[in-house]
Amino acid sequence: MFKQLSGEQRRELILNGNLYKAVTFLAWPVMIQSTMMILVGAVDMMMVGHLGSDAVGAVGMARQAIQIIGISIMAVGIGSTATIARYYGDKDIKGAINATGQALYFFVIFASANTLIGLLFSEGIMHLLGAEGDLLLLGSKYLTIFFAGLIFFLGNFTLRSIFQGTGDTKTPT
């Protein structure tokens, strides 16, 4: 059931196979990925917990801004996955390639803009969230580090969405 399947075998399972098996086949890697992403936030808090309440508060506030970016890219990723899946399911490879190109184009624009804004305005973002004093200083440092690596986070998410659109939920993990 969980063995490696070729692209055509995955397609056949998804389109004509047992619905329970198809959903399970597609869902278990996604559930593992989601759990790992949640653990990143929890590990951040555990590591920062030893640094005091200001550090915990700063990370908590900064993660609110991070959530907005995450939700935005998730919305686009879900749309990309659905669009690519539709073309792939119809065996319209040209359409799937075009949708993939659009997803990658959006990723480059979104990642570049958000990285630039985040690196330049981390302190302003924290101020908008209501941070003052040490919370402002610590939170803006945390956001600066996050935004410096944002392209990798968004790139992973975009590629994962593209692979999932073809029924491959394991490759990008």
List the SSEs and their pairings.
Blueprint: H1 7-16, H2 19-49, H3 53-89, H4 93-128, H5 133-148, H6 150-165
Helix pairs in contact: 1-2, 2-3, 3-4, 3-5, 3-6, 4-5, 4-6
Outline the structure in words:
With 173 residues, the chain is an all-alpha fold. The protein has one domain (7-165). The chain contains 6 helices and no strands. The longest helix has 37 residues, at 53-89. It is elongated, with a radius of gyration of 19 Å. The two termini are 18 Å apart. The mean pLDDT is 86.
Keywords:
6 helices; mainly alpha; single chain; 173 residues
Largest sheet: none
Cα end-to-end separation? 18 Å
Q: Element order, helices and strands?
A: HHHHHH
What gross morphology would you assign? elongated
Mean pLDDT over the full residue set: 86
The strand count comes to 0
Radius of gyration, CA atoms, in whole angstroms: 19 Å
The residue ranges in which pLDDT falls below 50 over 5 or more consecutive positions are: none
Percentage of helical residues?
Answer: over 70%
β-strand amount: under 5%
The structural domain count equals: 1
Number of helices: 6
Summing up helix and strand content along with how strands pair, one would put the structural category as: mainly alpha
